[in-house]
């Protein structure tokens, strides 16, 4: 009986891990990003805060990892990416530092909605929203290389 219980526990864990990996796979690929919403007028903080204009999300060693190119053309790899909300949302931060030690590093939160990656950058407040369109595999570019 104890062996059967152990086997069932292992099978349950494997299914849970497989389900998470499959759910995370939906986010993988290359994405072209643009700022959306009323914030597109580019308020001053949007000029100073890094945000992606191109992003690639992939699974490396079983974990989500990403690379993006910001509005200034700088490339950043962000291994600190986390799937939350039953793998329906992603959280990640940009590389680099803030201008002031007291400043909060912006966090990006993204959700896949009807094939579009919809995101927002926030600190203690929402700063701006963005959306990503998947780059077709035939057009994959590794942007600006």
In short:
This protein has a single domain (2-139), classed as Lipocalin (Beta Barrel).
How do the strands line up in the largest sheet? 4-3-2-1-9-8-7-6-5
Mean pLDDT: 74
Give the SSE string: HEHEEEEEEEE
Largest sheet: 9 strands, antiparallel
Specify the overall morphology: globular
What would you report as the Rg, rounded to the nearest angstrom?
18 Å
Strand residues, percent: 35-45%
Quickly give the structural class. Answer: alpha+beta
What is the CATH top level name?
Answer: Mainly Beta
- Low-pLDDT parts are 4-19
Enumerate how many helices there are, as a single number.
2
List the helices and strands and how they pair.
Elements: H1 2-25, E1 29-36, H2 44-48, E2 52-60, E3 63-70, E4 75-78, E5 81-84, E6 89-93, E7 107-113, E8 116-122, E9 126-134
What does this entry look like structurally?
There is one protein chain. By secondary structure, this protein is α+β, with helices and mostly antiparallel strands. 20% of the residues lie in helices and 42% in strands. It has a single domain, classed as Lipocalin. The chain is built from 2 helices and 9 strands, in the order H-E-H-E-E-E-E-E-E-E-E. A 9-stranded antiparallel sheet has the order 4-3-2-1-9-8-7-6-5, with helices on one face. Strand 3 (63-70) and strand 4 (75-78) form a beta hairpin.
